[in-house]
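tool=predict chain=A
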Amino acid sequence: MIRLTFLLRRRSDLSPEEFRRYWFDEHGPLVASHQGHLAIKRYVQVHTLDDPFAEAAARARGGAMEEPYDGVAELWFDSEDEFRAAGAADAGRAAGRALLEDEAHFIDLARSPLWLAHEYPQVNPTPETVVASEWNGVVKLYFPLRHLPTLDLDGAQRYWRVQHGPLIRRQAPAAGILCYRQVHRYETPLEAALRDARGCEVEPYTGHAEAWFDRSIVRTGPEVRASGRRAVEDERNFIDFARSSIWLGKERVIVDRW
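tool=predict ok
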């Protein structure tokens, strides 16, 4: 299973409301109509919330982080080979052209990076049914990160997975984490082709961390504050905060064929 992460910045002539409406009401059904042609197994839109959390999280990390994106398109495929083969067929090429043409109606493509990735679950509920829907109190934290220049991609991802992951797992109950996954980018020519087709000018990320919290359950106390401090202290060992971003969002599941 692989995952396509597509961080979206809206066109400057659209308001956040106009962007979200077009994305969900117009583009979402278009993607769903081509799910079979492109071998899409799951498609989720993560709509960014206008929430003070992003500013507070940035302050905890020194205050200099990138502006949150307007949303994230997430697509899952059984394998890169299957995704590539579907896109190379006549129907797949036509579907790809239709989606790209429509993306230009609402996305600033030059400022919207995308990449392919593998998931590394760290805190996983059973069954895996946590969704930050618009109808519940659950929110999804999105943390696209770039590693420090003193590390290479492999070294940064290894530290993230082997050192940072266990730390977050240990303190997940105190922090109120329902689910936590690391999503690690991997380098592939297919990523370059997708970026080139969109004229993307933004450097890809090392990957992103994602965590789900239930905000209807208020957690306070020294354990909660200490868990937050420990997480940020360890992040400094591998994350370049000034080239990373963080925010909260709500999920809208458009395609789910699992």
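The mean pLDDT is 94. The chain has one domain: 2-256.
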